[in-house]
Amino acid sequence: MVLYDALKQHWATLQRARRLCIGFSGGVDSHSLLHSLVALAGEEPLPPIVALHINHGLHAKAAQWEEHCAGVAAQLGVDFVAKSVLVSPGASPEAQARDARYEAFSRFLLADDLLLLAHHLDDQVETVLFRLIRGAGPKGLAGMPEKRQLGSATLVRPLLGLPRSDIEQYAIDHQLEWLTDSSNDDVSFDRNYLRHHVLPVIESRWPRYRQGFSRSATLSGLSHSAGNSRELPAGLTPLGDPCLSVATQDVNDLHSQLYTWLERMGASIPNYKVLSEFARQCIHGAEDRLPELQWEDYLIQRWKREIHVYPIIPRESFTYASRIGEAATGPWGAVDWAVAEFGLPAGERVTIRSAHPGEMITLRSRPTRSMSQCFQEANIPPYWRSFLPIICRREVPIALADLGLSVRGDAEAESLCKGGLVPVWRRPKLHFLN
User: Fold this and answer.
1) pLDDT confidence bin for 414, thresholds 50/70/90
2) HSE-CB for 51 with a 13 A CA cutoff
3) CATH number for the domain that contains residue 127
4) In this structure, are 207 and 240 located in the same domain?
5) Rounded mean pLDDT, 185-192
6) Cα-Cα-Cα-Cα dihedral of 310, 316, 322, 323, to 10°?
7) Number of CB atoms found within 10 A of residue 239's CB
8) How far is CA 32 from each of CA 36, 196, 210, rounded to the nearest angstrom?
9) N or C: which end of the chain has fewer CB within 10 A?
10) Where do the DSSP E strands lie in 257-394?
11) Containing domain of residue 324, as a range?
12) Do 179 and 263 reside in the same domain of the chain?
């Protein structure tokens, strides 16, 4: 039997698991997977099997479906667990449901559990074609992996090499009673449109198109793995931010480097056209320009011959009342205090604010400079300059966080004391690097 053969290819993985948890919707695919696994467990000892049902609450019959799934699990003699998730109304209910489902899976699974999902070859074809239409790169065109980590557990798709027809035939042969979701026929959903209108036309011309898509997905995966292992001229700035050197004059090469760099950090990848245009600007833009690309919740910007990545923060002035020694936080980050040989006396009232245009300051042992010159000399990237906290007493700057203490406007003896405090700036973090 083809389903048994597909499962036996993962035999060693199945036997090593703590539990075999089946993502069980009650549809023909997951029902066939659960049924075949139970049958296999009757021939050879396997870990406990759990039918894990996620109730999205999106369908009027959601409660009936859960009850049906519980009944199937009882009939097959396996444990049944149902988890309800909340999917907000609005755009892309499919994507929201998927994200909620995987989050529920992750919360339930324990270390060494195996989560088995019933995705098959037709699902893979739809995924690859849909991503191709959206302009995905090698990672996206690799489709769904047959096996990957999911938290401390492992996700396996043992039926990924089988066409839908094999699974449906198994269900018919074993007289299974499965659920049918009418929304699967709604062609206003992109995947359903591909399934019902596009792929049948392709199949009428190229009957073996599934194997071709599967082969391309495999090759894309290999290409992605090779590209992801390449050495990049990447590192950290003196402030600790990720950066990528512009060490090539080839736009396509820089585009590839940017793609790999962002992906390694876990960032969402801009579409091909947008990222390619940014790469072109980085290579051909004048040295005094600051090409930048804002994408979702981060921004990448070329400064000098490096590309930096930053969290997106509203570029507006700020003013906070505080005291020396007290931590202060805002969208611009946070100010902490450290003990120094010479520093500011604890407890004094101060104002923490952003720099004013054209403002001057005299740092200890240095000539009077504009704030802008201080930032340039300290190699502070332009993006951060409007957020770097200025510590003021009676509106007069007495310190630049991380850069030094000022003696302008106050006698040094009044401003400083031995064993006093100096301000330390903690910049806002990128959420995918936290």
Assistant:
1) low
2) 29
3) 3.40.50.620
4) no
5) 83
6) 60
7) 15
8) 6, 22, 21
9) C
10) 292-295, 298-303, 306-311, 319-323, 328-330, 333-344, 349-353, 360-361, 369-370, 390-393
11) 319-433
12) no
- Measured between alpha carbons, how far is residue 267 from residues 11, 152, 262, 295, 311 in Å? 35, 22, 5, 10, 11
**Helix (H), strand (E), coil (C) string for 12-36:** HHHHHCCCEEEECCCCHHHHHHHHH
Same domain, 428 and 364: yes
As a whole number of angstroms, the distance between CA 218 and CA 7 comes to: 20
Q: Looking at the structure, do residues 278 and 205 belong to the same domain, yes or no? A: no
Strand-strand pairing, 306-311 and 298-303: antiparallel
Spatial CB neighbours of 319, under 8 Å, sequence gap ≥ 6: 351, 352, 353, 354
DSSP 143: -
Q: Is 9 helix (H, G, I), strand (E, B) or coil?
A: coil
CB-CB contact of 114 with 13 (8 Å): yes
Residues 334 and 379 in one domain: yes
Same domain assignment for residues 211 and 239: no
Specify whether the CB–CB gap between 427 and 404 falls below 8 A: no
- Count of the separate structural domains present in the chain: 3
Residues 44 and 166 in one domain: yes
CA distance 80 to 125: 31
Cα 351 to Cα 56, 196, 423: the distances in Å are 50, 64, 12
Least Cα distance to 246 among 290, 304, 205, 201 occurs for 304
Q: Could you tell me the two tokens for 362?
A: 């005299």
Model confidence pLDDT, tens digit, residues 75-123: 999 999 999 888 766 556 777 788 889 989 999 999 999 999 999 999 9
Q: Do 202 and 74 belong to one domain?
A: yes
Of 278, 311, 344, which residue constitutes the final position of a domain? 311
Name the nearest CA neighbour of 69 among 197, 151, 231, 179. Answer: 179
Q: What is the rounded CA–CA span in Å between residue 391 and residue 381?
A: 20
CA 345 to chain centroid, in Å, comes to 44
pLDDT at 43 over 50: yes
Q: Please spell the DSSP secondary structure of 73-136, one letter per residue.
A: HHHHT-EEEEEE----SSS-HHHHHHHHHHHHHHHH--TT-EEE----HHHHHHHHHHHHHTT-
Structure tokens at 137: 């790169």
pLDDT by residue (tens digit) across 211-263?
Answer: 888 888 877 776 676 666 678 899 998 888 899 999 888 887 898 889 889 98
209-228 and 121-133 helices cross at what angle (nearest 10)?
A: 60
